[in-house]
Amino acid sequence: MNLTGQTLDTLDFSIGEYPPGVSEYLPGYGFFTEIVTEAFKAEGIEVNYSFCPWARVWLNITEGNSDGSLGYLWNPEREEEVLYSKPIWDMSFSAAFCLKEKTFHISKPDDLMDYKVIIQRGYSYGANVDQYLASDKIDYCVVETEEQAFKMLILNRAEFFLTNNLNGLYTIQTFFPEENTFTYYSYDPTLNGASFHMVVSKKHPRSRWIIERFNSGLEKIKSSGLFDEISADYLPHS
């Protein structure tokens, strides 16, 4: 880690587990991490990563033991302590996946009452849908894994599988790479609009410089097509 006024050629980031965005067990340490690595590389900067629990990651950032981290959603409390980069990925937490061959009109939680849906054990789907599920206003079945859910869609056991767009698309790419079968609708617009960012402590003496370099590099890899190439390794081709 370099906290001096010298030119930064290497940065040390702390990160945790949030596959497929960030993971010690994926090539390049995951989708988000590869984007960050290549964005800084475009600016002539190398990034080293160390993994630890997310609570420790936050302490490392705010206590000055790390140059930054990635995979953070914006919230007002965190913004008091860190600077946020441009978005790495825009997230939809209300993705209702279905077969492309079928036509649906889904735009709000009430619309799900007309269909059978698949949910994953232990997940929350927003206050409205959680309430409907608890009161059996929505017909549903429960699975343990996303792979099971998509197989059930193929077998027409239900119309929709509720998840988020990142995990859903990654599951399709991992287990159904040859399929051009699925699409998704947003079932609750209030759960959308979130995005994942890189963050740097405001106390870091080069915080704005680091953010500016990343934002510049991100634009470069988007313009060159590299961003889309990395995305294609994790998500289905459009």
Automatic annotation (TrEMBL):
<dbReference type="Pfam" id="PF00497">
    <property type="entry name" value="SBP_bac_3"/>
</dbReference>
<keyword id="KW-0732">Signal</keyword>
<feature type="domain" description="Solute-binding protein family 3/N-terminal">
    <location>
        <begin position="17"/>
        <end position="238"/>
    </location>
</feature>
<protein>
    <submittedName>
        <fullName>Polar amino acid transport system substrate-binding protein</fullName>
    </submittedName>
</protein>
<dbReference type="InterPro" id="IPR001638">
    <property type="entry name" value="Solute-binding_3/MltF_N"/>
</dbReference>
